[in-house]
Amino acid sequence: MKLWVNGELRDADAATISVLDHGLTVGDGVFETLKTVRGRPFALDLHLDRLVRSARGLGLPDPDLDEVRRACAAVVEANPLELGRLRVTYTGGPSPLGSDRGDAGPSLVVALGEAAHRPDTTAVVTVPWTRNERGALTGLKTTSYAENVVALARAHRQGASEALFANTVGQLCEGTGSNVFVVVDGRIHTPPLASGCLAGITRHLVVEWTGARETDLPLDVLRTADEVFLTSTLRDVQAVHRVDDRELAPAPGPVTAKAMRVFAERAALL
Ligand code: PLP
């Protein structure tokens, strides 16, 4: 496997960045996960826009998007895969301990792995921790993902593939790596960005293509909604068949099944 590190394509075991990289020592970095289909990154421009927004939110210099594009193309070409997950990581770069960022400039790493098969339906759990809808990092895709790691581990222990958060005022927010949609009375709703959720690329496309409404929703909506589904780059649209101990049947329900179809058809044309 070859990956891109700071301007060069390297073998994965020979690729290095500094152990004093600010991304490693204090989580000062941003990232994107893209899907590649037969070597083509899906929705690359939307991901690059979000990478820049996240970097600006952290006060990192704008990434050189020409280099990021070249890096993505080189990594994809060097590692032919039918369905891949492309990871772009952009960090503050090396800096002496205890100081702000050093002079060496940011680090860029682009790597590719095989995208795991995602079933059409999945189980989710709610977690007792909250997303902060007004935090400094709200809405940024930063490498400070440890809270998601802890919540996802809890979901896995309970036989689920995703954990869902409420925000600090008890509204439904998002998953550790996905956005959430509910169907109530035949209409699709998803929490607004003001809930503190990430502006998911898949969420954006699903809102545009299905007319889903952005609505403040209490966490409890998960107990009564007719259907629930998740969206993310690697899940696309994925139906939820269990929320905590509540079974939802059939899953996918009719509205979710239609959203899955619409997404697959429209995405194939992008
Ligand atoms: N929310 C969080 C916290 C995420 O990390 C992700 C993706 O990794 C998403 C939502 C879904 O975003 P996208 O559809 O762009 O993959």
From TrEMBL:
GO MF terms held by the record: lyase activity
CDD domains: ADCL_like
Requisite cofactors: pyridoxal 5'-phosphate
Keywords: Folate biosynthesis, Lyase, Pyridoxal phosphate
Catalytic activities: 4-amino-4-deoxychorismate = 4-aminobenzoate + pyruvate + H(+)
EC number: 4.1.3.38
Gene3D superfamilies per UniProt: 3.30.470.10, D-amino Acid Aminotransferase, subunit A, domain 2 (3.20.10.10)
InterPro entries: Aminodeoxychorismate_lyase_IV, Aminotrans_IV, Aminotrans_IV_CS, Aminotransferase-like, BCAT-like_C, BCAT-like_N, Class-IV_PLP-Dep_Aminotrnsfr
Pathway: Cofactor biosynthesis; tetrahydrofolate biosynthesis; 4-aminobenzoate from chorismate: step 2/2
TM helices/strands, residue ranges: none
Family named by the database record: Belongs to the class-IV pyridoxal-phosphate-dependent aminotransferase family.
Subunit-structure text: Homodimer.
Protein name, UniProt field: aminodeoxychorismate lyase
